Amino acid sequence: MSDSLERRNTDSSGPLLRVKDLHKYYGNTPAVREVSFELGYGEIVGLVGDNGAGKSTLVKILAGYHKPDKGEIYFKGKKVEFNSPYEARREGIEIVYQDLALISTMPIYRNIYLAFEPKRGIFIDKKTMKEEARKFLKSMGIDVDPNKLAGELSGGQRQMVAIARALMFQANLLLLDEPTSALSVYEARETLNFVSRAIKDTYRGRASAIIVSHNIHHVYSVATRILVMDQGKIVLDIPSKEMSPIEVEEYIVKITKEKASQR
């Protein structure tokens, strides 16, 4: 893992991510349009907006699942063009979905090393996987047995293990798509607090996160900045301390009403 860390860490004097005039169309319908923003090292950004605003499409572009039709993406100071999620992961971008985070029938240690299994000769080195997974989870404050099946974990534990897996392989950018949508209030709070601790304390500003959420109040508990999307565009980009969650919510309701009145 140390080789991976050396490969991915770069000069943090500039932004971690810079997106310039990004567009994505499905037929004649723009899903993402004129999107430009920067993300600094150590930032946690809440990406919010109504259904169909373009949030998930944007993070899927950043994660290599979709190619933009126009625009540029710069990551760690260099221009990147991803043809697959694998290419994005190789550069240090990881996406975590609520429903697809872990394979329930696999032990935790196998989930963590999925597609990155260490080998001893021609065989998978299960002993190393178990030992390293146990040590890393403990360092992240996750007290679970790595031999346990992922399906035996609570929703919050599953999310934290999935996020830890991304960080174990030195992700610089975490993309979390609705990470709290199926969690209880307590589990949602614990998961987001875990993200905050990981970014600010464990990784000391070497990683950042974009959290897609419908629940503005959830994301506000950890976000340093808020991006609001509407009809594929970023219509608001502010430090979270400058507007309350209720004010952001009212802003989204206002632009939704304005659209409805124009139909």
Task: Explain this structure.
- With 263 residues, this protein is an alpha/beta fold.
- The protein has two domains: 194 residues, 3-Layer(aba) Sandwich (Rossmann fold); 50 residues, no CATH class.
- Helix content is 36%, strand content 25%.
- The chain is built from nine helices and twelve strands.
- The strands form three sheets. It has a six-stranded mixed β-sheet with strand order 6-9-10-3-11-12, with helices on both faces. A four-stranded antiparallel β-sheet has the order 2-1-4-5, with helices on one face. It has a two-stranded antiparallel sheet with strand order 7-8.
- Helix 7 links the parallel strand 9 and strand 10.
- Helix 6 runs parallel beside helix 7.
- The longest helix has 18 residues.
- Pfam families: ABC_tran.
- Keywords: ATP-binding, Nucleotide-binding, Sugar transport, Transport.
What is the structure about, briefly put?
The longest helix is centred in the last third of the chain and has 18 residues. The protein contains 9 helices and 12 strands.
Helix content bin = 25-40%
The chain-level mean pLDDT equals 89
Calculate the terminal CA-CA distance, rounded to whole Å: 54 Å
Outline type: globular
What is the name of the CATH class of the largest domain? Alpha Beta
- Tally the helices: 9
CATH architecture of the largest domain: 3-Layer(aba) Sandwich
Percent strand: 25-35%
Number of strands: 12
Q: Radius of gyration, rounded? A: 19 Å
The largest beta-sheet arranges its strands as 6-9-10-3-11-12
CATH superfamily of the largest domain: P-loop containing nucleotide triphosphate hydrolases
H/E element string?
HEEEHEEHEHEEHHEHEHEEH
Structural class: alpha/beta
Number of domains: 2
What CATH calls the topology of the largest domain is Rossmann fold
Biggest sheet architecture = 6 strands, mixed
> pLDDT under 50 segments (min length 5)?
1-9
Domain ABC transporter: 17-256
InterPro entries: AAA+_ATPase, ABC_carbohydrate_import_ATPase, ABC_transporter-like_ATP-bd, ABC_transporter-like_CS, P-loop_NTPase
Pfam family, one: ABC_tran
Organism: Metallosphaera yellowstonensis MK1
